[in-house]
Predict the structure.
Amino acid sequence: MIKTLSSDDARGLLERGRIGRLGCIAENEPYVVPVSYLFEDDCVYVHTMPGLKVTSLRANPRACLQVDEVRDEYHWKSAIGFGAYEEVTDPGERERVLDGLLERFPRLTPAESISAASGSLAPPIVFRLRLHRMTGLAED
Amino acid sequence: MIKTLSSDDARGLLERGRIGRLGCIAENEPYVVPVSYLFEDDCVYVHTMPGLKVTSLRANPRACLQVDEVRDEYHWKSAIGFGAYEEVTDPGERERVLDGLLERFPRLTPAESISAASGSLAPPIVFRLRLHRMTGLAED
């Protein structure tokens, strides 16, 4: 039986999750990529290298993060949070977010060396989705 | 190091996968939901009950299916196939697809009883995305 999650249950799933699927719109087509994220005060924080995701989100900031806990095809929970893309550019806030991501993902490449590791000279992008709506479904 | 998957590698990941994340556009916002699917001849087949996913896809048929194999945050592959929503309405083809889904997911509720199990009187929807482009990324 499929049921709708309450907003609190959806928030709980988003808070517990570590890897989610970010949905955005790239040239009028839906686009989905996995991301590691930090959840804080109803915001999702992600850091990434410049690429299609960032280009698309700058052009159309509407985005969602979908997270699920799937036991099998018939026992699963899925939550989705909707928000708008906001780039974090303030140096102090960037540092705070990057520290938080490093704490959550200790093996994460430190910000200083991401550019080198990815073969890019561009600095990593830090962004947030401020979630204005959280919902979800579950089957058990 | 993040690298781009070839179209063949992306197809392989989509073929192996069982659960993917379907991306579509619902009222101008990206929307992502997990689905069990069947991959055949560069088409993805899904069956579902009427709901936001189907309503959105009927209004805007552009869709994608994202599938990943994640070992951890730093070792993962993600493929995405882009296609348009097509409802499968021919009775013979519906039966063939539903049989294929049942074969792949033996514990799947048989089509005849899905409506009853979901508490809905509406018949299940069978649809396909005919993928016109497959791409992906991997980090290892």
Summary: Residues 91-104 of chain B form the longest helix (14 residues).
